[in-house]
């Protein structure tokens, strides 16, 4: 195997591929890249047995072949190289990496030890999504997806094709994020693990049109120069639409930025991840109150469009801030059905921004 490749292009490709490797793997082979030189391209393969990534880079292939090398070492060498073009060549049991005056000899692993990649079935269901739409769905739901929930189906984003719109859903049981843009003809239902979302964010460009095929256990996502096979989470996702209130009796319209600032101010007294705050809706006001037995009390107010009976409910301010941070709208509706129901947050005009968040109340 011998080839030359643009250093900056190779660096970008290796950085993306690194996300699909395992840093501390029980199987050492999972910390390696499989490099395959063929035709006019170098294919970089990486896997953690949950994500299987193949990524192509344009290269001048002088001699075809394959080699398996430590991923992090190759990433570091190319990233820090002082050259415009990298030369990769296999010499015996080593991979020679030349970049300007720098030369490295990397130990290789038998390519036969590298895991086989899954292949989509011929009759697999398929659909297409804009890259920009998928990135938006990930950004708006990822914060609500836990890393290690006991209910394993919650550890990922649910993509639910509804025919005329696509639902991107994330929930940890205490809060729900739902982005539902209009999309015609997409009917796949996919439960994507949280780590795979991180891999996708590295790979997907906004202008990409992604081809997605799905089998029982895998989703195959194809971009312009890469393909990612994702092992889907198993199990039935909760009926998230059932918990969204059909009607709310207490509806306040509030400026997002002012609401976030007030929440951050009153929780200055609270340490830890859980930041209890009492929210009271009153005439044209949202009142915020915090009480901490160690540091004292705090109160604040934000102007809001609200006329009606006062209502007071306690929430985790951290959840409120993270939800509000994901709105593009200047103002949002803060809605309550009753004192025991979750808060429903929607954009001032939901048709323009089809995104909602649901946050369960807490007991302080």
Structural account:
There is one protein chain. With 364 residues, the chain is an alpha+beta fold. The protein folds into three domains: 2-113, DNA Polymerase III, subunit A, domain 2 (DNA Polymerase III, Chain A, domain 2); 125-242, DNA Polymerase III, subunit A, domain 2 (DNA Polymerase III, Chain A, domain 2, Roll); 245-359, DNA Polymerase III, subunit A, domain 2 (DNA Polymerase III, Chain A, domain 2, Roll), CATH 3.10.150.10. The protein is built from six helices and 25 strands. It has helices at residues 7-18, 71-79, 131-141, 194-203, 256-266, 317-324, and strands spanning 2-6, 32-38, 41-47, 51-58, 60-63, 65-70, 85-91, 94-99, 102-107, 125-130, 156-161, 166-171, 175-179, 189-193, 209-214, 218-222, 226-231, 250-255, 276-282, 285-292, 296-305, 311-316, 331-336, 343-347, 355-359. The strands form three sheets. The chain has a twelve-stranded antiparallel sheet. An eight-stranded antiparallel sheet has the order 6-2-3-4-17-16-15-10. Helix 1 packs antiparallel against helix 2 (71-79) and helix 5 (256-266) runs antiparallel to helix 6 (317-324). The mean pLDDT is 95.
């Amino acid at each position: 195997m011998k080839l030359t490749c643009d250093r900056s292009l190779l660096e970008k490709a290796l950085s993306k591929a690194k996300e699909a490797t395992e840093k501390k793997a029980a199987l050492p082979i999972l910390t390696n890249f499989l490099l395959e030189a063929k035709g006019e391209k170098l294919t970089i393969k990486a896997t953690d047995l949950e994500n299987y990534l193949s990524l192509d880079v344009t290269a001048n292939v002088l001699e075809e072949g394959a080699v398996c090398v430590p991923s992090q070492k190759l990433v570091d060498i190319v990233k820090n190289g002082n050259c415009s073009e990298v030369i990769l060549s296999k010499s015996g049991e080593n991979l020679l990496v030349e970049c300007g005056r720098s030369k490295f000899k990397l130990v290789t692993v038998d390519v036969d030890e590298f895991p086989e990649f899954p292949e989509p079935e011929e009759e697999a269901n398929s659909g297409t999504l804009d890259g920009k739409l998928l990135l938006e769905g990930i950004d708006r739901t990822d914060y609500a997806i836990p890393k290690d929930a006991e209910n394993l189906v919650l550890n990922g984003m649910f993509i639910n094709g509804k025919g005329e719109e696509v639902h991107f859903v994330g929930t940890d049981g205490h809060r729900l994020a739902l982005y539902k843009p209009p999309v015609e003809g997409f009917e796949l239902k996919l439960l994507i693990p949280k780590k795979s979302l991180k891999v996708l964010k590295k790979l997907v460009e906004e202008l990409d049109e992604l081809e997605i095929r799905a089998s029982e256990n895998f989703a195959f996502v194809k971009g312009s120069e890469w393909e990612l096979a994702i092992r889907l989470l198993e199990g039935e996702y909760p009926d998230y639409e059932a918990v969204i209130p059909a009607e709310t009796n207490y509806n306040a319209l509030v400026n997002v930025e002012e609401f976030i600032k007030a929440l951050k101010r009153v929780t200055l007294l609270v340490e830890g991840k859980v930041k209890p705050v009492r929210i009271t809706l009153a005439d044209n006001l949202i009142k915020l109150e915090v009480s901490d037995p160690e540091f004292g009390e705090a109160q604040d107010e934000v102007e809001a469009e609200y006329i009606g009976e006062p209502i007071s409910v306690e929430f985790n301010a951290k959840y409120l801030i993270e939800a509000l941070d994901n709105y593009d709208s200047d103002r949002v509706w803060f809605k309550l059905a009753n004192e025991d129901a979750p808060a429903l947050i929607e954009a001032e005009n939901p048709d323009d921004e089809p995104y909602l968040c649901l946050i369960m109340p807490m007991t302080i």
